[in-house]
Amino acid sequence: MNIVLFGKPGAGKGTQAPKIADALGVPTLATGNVLRSAVKQGTSLGREAKAYMDRGDLVPDSVILGIVRDELARPEYAKGVVLDGVVRTVPQAEGLAKMLGSLGRKVDAVVSLDVPDEEIVRRTGTRTVCSTCQTPYSDLPPGGKCPNCGGVVMRRTDDEPEAVRNRLRVFTDQTAPVFDWYKKDGARIVTVDANGSVKDVTQRVLRALGK
Length: 211
Hints:
It is built from eight helices and eight strands, in the order βαβαααβαβαβββαβα. By secondary structure, it is of the alpha/beta class. α1 packs across α8 (198-208).
């Protein structure tokens, strides 16, 4: 199965993607990871992406999807993939459809992890990081002492409540049209309640997919 995984920032995509993939017996693919890998390896598209990044510009969808295509063409993705963060806008959805078509594949399901906005704000509000060693925490308040190195624990600026609400507004504005596009395209869309334990959410996703 080729699955597009959706979810608001903080909905748990990064946690769920490998668990869903493991249960389905397929790998995951996250845009950021393959982009960094292509840049590090110095591939043709990786060098092109790096040129944009070095200028402080956004890497165009065409370059990112080209990098994703090169990755998906590898044998380990032959049985399918869980795509995490590959589609955030309608042009990306259109580009992914064309790219998969060139490989003789298609999106089999779009899985949306649904969490209320205020729960997202609460979750991200508990995330802190050591200002010295960058160790992340979910149970230490800002101003606390890092058990790892003794540094001061802080909350990232982009995890402050208003910053999170702004990201959620942007996500909603960009993503609602994506769902409409997939509906018109005939894709199977599955919305799953992503509140609860990690295991419970994974099982809900698999049941919704009929696995």
